[in-house]
Amino acid sequence: MQATNHYSLPVPKAALQGIDRSSSPAHTGKLKHAVDLVVPYDTPVLAAADGTVTFVRDDSEKGGPSIAFWYDSNFIVIQHPNMEYSRYDHLATRSAMVKPGQQVKTGQQIARVGTTGFTLLPHLHFQVFVFTGSNVWTDFETLPIKTF
Ligand SMILES: [Zn+2]
Questions:
Q1: What is the pTM of this model?
Q2: CB–CB of 117/59 below 8 Å?
Q3: Residue 25: what pLDDT?
Q4: How close is the Cα of 35 to the center of ligand 1, in Å?
């Protein structure tokens, strides 16, 4: 299944140093279509499409190059009108600028890039997905998105 919404780059283009689809050992199985956008720490994170915020976590202060930090990622999830979702991970601590239930527009800043969770260097983990159940950590399938 291909993503049907149009998704824009979730970081300012000038800040983008690279798109990494291979370095993370975590991008397998249901995370197959996730991408890592390499950008400096504190880079603004932008909504990739219009939608409604459904999850916000930004209270974690932990992260590093170990899978032990997997569940320590600060992240935001946005639901789009066609029931696809976008997820933004490794956000800086207490950087969220939106709340669950809030409507956002494409390009609107929602947080800042950090290093919470399992991450080797500052980057934004971005994925477009559909739910296959109700657990945001386990019940989803990522969708292929067009190269930005
Ligand atoms: Zn990633």
A1: 0.94
A2: no
A3: 65
A4: 6
How far does residue 125's CA lie from ligand 1's centre (Å)? 4
- 59 in a structural domain: yes
pLDDT tens across 58-82, in order? 999 999 999 999 999 999 999 999 9
Query: What pLDDT does 27 receive?
Result: 84
CA–CA separation, 135 and 36 (whole Å): 22
| Number of domain units in the chain | 1
Q: How many angstroms does the Cα of residue 143 sit away from the middle of ligand 1?
A: 14
Query: How far does residue 17's CA lie from ligand 1's centre (Å)?
Result: 15
Q: With beta carbons less than 8 A apart as the criterion, state whether 117 and 60 touch.
A: yes
Give the CATH number, domain containing residue 33: 2.70.70.10
Please name which of 118, 13, 111, 132 lies closest in space to residue 53, comparing C-alpha atoms.
111
Owning domain of residue 52: 13-142
